[in-house]
Amino acid sequence: MTIREMQEEILRMKEEKDLCILAHTYQSREVTEIADYVGDSFQLSLKARTAPQSSILMCGVRFMAETVKILSPEKAVYLSSPQAGCPMAEQLTPEQVCAEKEKYPGCMTVAYVNTTAELKAVADVCVTSSSAAEIVKKLPAKDILFIPDVNLGAYVQACCPEKKLHFLFGGCPVHSSLTLRDAKRAKAEHPEAKLLVHPECRPDVVAYADYVGSTAGIIEYVARSPKSEFIIGTENSVAEYLGFEYPEKKFYPLSKGLICADMKATTLPDVYRILKEGAEPLEMNPELLQNARGCIDWMLALG
After folding, report:
1. Is the dihedral of CA 168, 215, 37, 293 positive or negative?
2. Predicted model pTM
3. Has residue 294 been placed in a domain?
4. Are 225 and 205 in contact (CB under 8 A)?
5. Distance CA 63, CA 52 (A)
6. In angstroms, rounded to a whole number, what is the distance separating the alpha carbons of residues 68 and 168?
7. How far is CA 9 from the centre of its chain?
8. Residues 18, 76: one domain?
9. What is the mean pLDDT of residues 250-275?
C-alpha cells in the first residue's frame, strides 16, 4: 500500500466511524495531511470541543489527549501512539508541587498546559505559552509557583516584574538544548533571516531572538511578515510545515538536533491500524477529570 492509498483509506474510515483526527504541528507531513485540524496542543483541544464527531484521535502525546478528554468528557478519545509521552509534562509529581507551594504563603500554582492531568488537578490555573504572561498578570497573588518549565517561567517573570515566580526544576529537553552559540551561528550563516524562537528556549537565546512566541505565534508571524527568510527555533517539523505552507519563503532550522522523539512516535500506519483494528479509548478517573478541569476553565475565563 502506498502512502497515498493509506491516506485515502484513513479518510474513508474516519468518515465511516464518525471520528475527528487532530494532529499537532510537530507531526510528519503525511499525518498532518489526513487531519481535520492541525495546530498546537491547546488549539486542538478547543477544536475537539466543537467538532461534531463523537470520537477524537489525537496525533500527539499523552497530555494532549488528556486535555482533549478533560474538555470533552462525553467523547471517546484515542491516542495514536500509546508510548508517546512528554518528558517535561511528566517531570514532577503532585506531591512535589504541593510540598513546594507550602513554602510560600498565599502562593498560587500556575501549570503550563504541557503537564499531566494529575498536575493540573493540584494547580490553580493553567496557561499556554502564548497566554502565560497575560494570565499571570491578572492573578491576585504576588507569589506564583510556576510549573514545570523554568525557561518559560523566566520569560513570564521578565514580562511580569511585579510578580515573584518560584520554580521546581523542569523544562523541555529539546528546546533547552539550544544554546546562544547555536543562535549566533545560525544568524551568521543567514544574516537576512529573522530568528523566531519558542519561550521554552533558554533565556539568553530568547533575549537574542527577533521574535518569541508559541508554535502558533511563530506560524502567524511568518504569515504576516514581509520578510522572506526565517530561522526557526522550535521543533524542526515547524520549519518543514512552514516550507510547505509558504514555498516562496526560506526556513532554516536553528539546530538539526531540534527533534522530539515522542512526537515522532506517531506514524501514518499507526493511524491506519487504529481505524482498521480499533483501540482502547483513554480512560480518566471522574474525580481527577473534574479537578483538572477547574484550572483549565479558569484559564479560559482569564485568557
Report:
1. positive
2. 0.91
3. no
4. no
5. 22
6. 26
7. 28
8. yes
9. 95
